[in-house]
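Data deposition worksheet. Section B asks for the primary sequence of the deposited chain exactly as it was used as input, without tags or linkers unless they were present during the calculation. Section C holds the resulting structure in token form. Section D is free text for depositor observations; keep each observation to a single sentence. Incomplete worksheets are returned to the depositor.
Section A, Depositor: J.P.
Section B:
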Amino acid sequence: MDNNIQLQRAKHALHNVKDMKKPENAGAIDEYLSAARGLPAEIRMNGLGQAIAMLRARGVKNEGAMALYRHVSDWMCREGSPSPYAGRGPLLDAIVGGEESAYRQAYVEIDAYLAWLKRFADAFLEPLTKTKEAS
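Section C:
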């Protein structure tokens, strides 16, 4: 594993964004882009737990939101993650069951991860609505 945490974040985010380019995910790209662009602001306005809960709830009916929830959850809860929730998934359970200091650390970590994810989503994903307008 890479020693540079920024590089780890970038690799994970890029892998997930490229996974969204698969044909079976084509219908989810617009919502994924929208959610990836909006989630950092939602976290700042509503708090980490509320924003992640809202994303998960949107994901019940929306594949793009659910994909983003899975990507964020994987980063925050996988073994070896720099997140205080590493190995403690699912993400919402870890957030609700964690200490206040872990919550603050997680806020910083998810913000850093989402910065990469948002950049890569903007760079590599073509909105379906834009593709339709060009036709």
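Section D:
The longest helix spans residues 100-124.
The mean pLDDT is 91.
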